[in-house]
Design brief:
This protein has 25 helices and 6 strands. By secondary structure, it is mainly α. The chain has a 4-stranded antiparallel sheet with strand order 3-4-5-6, covered by helices on one side. It has a two-stranded antiparallel ribbon with strand order 1-2.
């Protein structure tokens, strides 16, 4: 899904931006995997003796294997041909300019992400309820994944052949393409589960074989589409859509005729009725070391998972369906890294929106962002729990929504008078009111060193603001007032969340808080837009610049994921530790802003930035000293 954001990234920062971003993310992921997750498997003497040669011959004699191979080939032809040519199709086939085609290209893939969660949940419910067998479920899902897109592409072909042009035709084609990829997401609970279905033991080898054939299909499909375009005089119907339709119809026929989801004993070459059962423990001592089945913890909104052993009961955090490891340092690293990566994407894309000519609609941005947050929150809530769960009271949600809407609206409105980099610097100062309100609301106490680091941070903010005064012709002190008010609101909001939603007997889930608070906040935003007269003007601007709404939705999704990580940090590590991570995030965002969107530098910017970085380092040092002191105290008590 992240790769699908490449078009707007290229549009905003050039092709180099994609390589910098994906390269950095790859390095961060590899280091995290190496140090926190990669372990050498323990192999017993019995297992080492039981190693047999991989039965490749048995694979190629099995009908289900060939069904998977063919369908995987067809899927990659379809998916990567359209992935490669979609921006060109928007430009050459629909006559859209580079800006519009770049942003419209992400809509079909965004629909894939949205449908994937739903498709997997539905398919699992069919199997677990006994409504359908594994084989029937895989066949139904694959039929949806192939025949649905084929029907949509046939409809697109009809629109193109009719010669229809204009907004209605373009909107219809984009909508049909989005539906094409949304239905294609049903390949996840069919094709991409089938290797594990037929042979858990050799699933990795089977996937390697079929993926090799699929990779070849990607190469051939992309080359053939280009060749067909030359041969047919740039006919998109005959070159791109018709070949995919034909291949998908053949793929479904092969799948229905040959695939069987029952496990196959490839070592013996014969199907078996059930998987082998694990050996019974030989003694009570060995049985005590076996972990019981992990099940979701009731009352947590799906945000925690209880792992039971004979001696240990531990609630592990679950974020976006991902169960975090039990190691507290690993938990903090994952949550902090997720918040940093997503928020950097959020910042770059949001600044890109404000640089679109004529865009000055803070209320419109707040409305679209709040609605996107609400949709994401309710979707995650439903997928994690099977229904929409609410633990907190409506009263607290109305209060929280006022705070979140007020902070978001004032922050967006302040950008009329401040540079985006200054906005980030001011937001990094939220640790100041957070500490104040943490003392008042939650009764926390802070050291002299913490107050000193805050003083350095404030000095950096003052210098950065003076840099704005020198470099920005439209600077207005009202922007400083607005952003300071927004900071205070955000600080109250963070501590209110911690006290009323997370530090309670029945805590709310992150998705619950974001869903309900954002839904009510979007109502406030709509009312504000309607009475201010901004709604009609903003709609006209978005119609004239169709990249605006997709771009806001994209950075809002990144913002939602980032906020989910941030709320998890608040829930499991506290508001002050969270603000440390957010301050580091803002330092990185400032650097990214000056790299992607160059600004006139002066010594005040540089000095202010150094002060902000120094404050962040001091805060980290204080946090590490506190952690060491706590560990020493516990050791002494023991």
């Amino acid at each position: 899904p992240i790769a699908h954001a490449a078009p707007p990234i290229i549009f905003l920062s050039g092709w180099q931006g994609v390589f910098y971003l994906f390269g950095a993310m790859g390095v961060a992921w590899a280091m995290g995997w190496k140090f926190f997750f990669m372990k050498s498997p323990e192999v017993t003497s019995d297992e080492s003796k039981a190693k047999d040669a991989t039965p490749f011959g048995a694979f190629f004699k099995n009908g289900s294997f060939w069904a998977i191979f063919v369908v995987h080939f067809v899927w990659n032809w379809f998916y990567y041909s359209i992935l490669a040519f979609l921006p060109t199709f928007f430009q050459a086939g629909l006559g859209l300019d580079l800006a519009k085609s770049s942003f419209l290209s992400i809509l079909p893939y965004a629909s894939t992400v949205a449908m994937t969660f739903l498709a997997g949940s539905i398919a699992n419910s069919w199997i677990s309820s006994g409504k359908f067998s594994v084989t029937t479920t895989r066949k139904i899902a694959l039929s949806i994944a192939f025949l649905g897109p084929a029907a949509c592409m046939a409809a697109i072909s009809a629109v193109l052949l009719s010669g229809a042009t204009g907004f209605a035709a373009t909107a219809s084609i984009v909508a049909l393409l989005s539906l094409t990829f949304a239905l294609g997401a049903w390949s996840r609970p069919s094709l991409f589960c089938s290797h594990q279905d037929i042979s858990p033991k050799y699933a990795g080898v089977l996937l390697g074989i079929t993926n090799t054939g699929a990779a070849i299909a990607s190469l051939i499909g992309t080359f053939a589409t280009g060749a067909f375009l030359d041969m047919t005089g740039q006919s998109w119907v005959m070159s791109l859509f018709v070949p995919c339709i034909i291949l998908q119809a053949l793929g479904v026929a092969v799948w229905l005729a040959m695939f069987n989801g029952e496990p196959v004993n490839f070592d013996a070459g014969q199907p078996k009725a059930e998987l082998p059962k694990p050996e019974e423990p030989k003694s009570e001592d060995s049985a005590a070391g076996i972990a019981l089945l992990a099940t979701p913890r009731r009352g947590s909104g799906g945000q925690g998972r209880r792992v039971l052993t004979a001696e240990v009961k531990e609630d592990l955090p679950v974020v976006l369906g991902m169960t975090l490891p039990s190691n507290r340092n690993a938990q903090f690293l994952i949550l902090a890294s997720g918040a940093l990566v997503c928020s950097l994407g959020f910042a770059a894309l949001q600044e890109g929106v404000f640089r679109i000519p004529g865009f000055k609609f803070a209320g419109w941005m707040t409305l679209v962002t709040s609605l996107t947050y609400a949709i994401c929150g309710f979707a995650e809530n439903y997928l994690m729990n099977g229904r929409i769960v609410r633990h907190a009271s409506w009263k607290n949600y109305w209060i929280l929504s006022v705070l979140t809407f007020g902070g978001m609206y004032l922050t967006n409105f302040a950008l009329k008078f401040l540079t985006y980099a200054s906005r980030i610097v001011f937001k990094s100062a939220k640790v100041v009111p957070v500490m104040i309100f943490a003392t008042i609301i939650n009764g926390k106490r802070f050291s002299v060193g913490e107050y000193l680091s805050v003083a350095v941070l404030v000095a950096g903010i003052i210098l950065f603001t003076l840099g704005d005064v020198s470099a920005m012709p439209t600077f207005n002190p009202i922007g400083v007032v607005l952003i300071v008010i927004a900071l205070c609101i955000d600080a109250i909001c963070s501590n209110f969340e911690e006290k009323k939603f997370f530090r309670v007997e029945t805590p709310s889930s992150q998705s619950e808080v974001l869903g309900f608070a954002s839904l009510i906040g979007s109502l406030y935003a709509f009312i504000t837009l309607a009475f201010s007269g901004e709604l009609s003007v903003a709609l006209e601007h978005s119609i004239a610049n169709p990249q605006v709404v997709p771009l806001i939705c994209l950075f809002s999704v990144l913002g939602y994921v980032s906020v989910t990580f941030v709320l998890s940090l608040i829930k499991y590590f506290g508001a002050t530790e969270t603000e440390i991570v957010k301050s580091l995030r803002k330092v990185m965002s400032i650097c990214l802003s000056f790299i992607i969107f160059p600004k006139a530098l002066n010594w005040k910017y540089i000095a202010g930035f150094i002060m902000v970085v120094l404050s962040t380092i001091m805060t980290f040092k204080i946090k590490m000293d506190k952690a060491a002191a706590k560990a020493a105290a516990k050791l002494k008590e023991a």
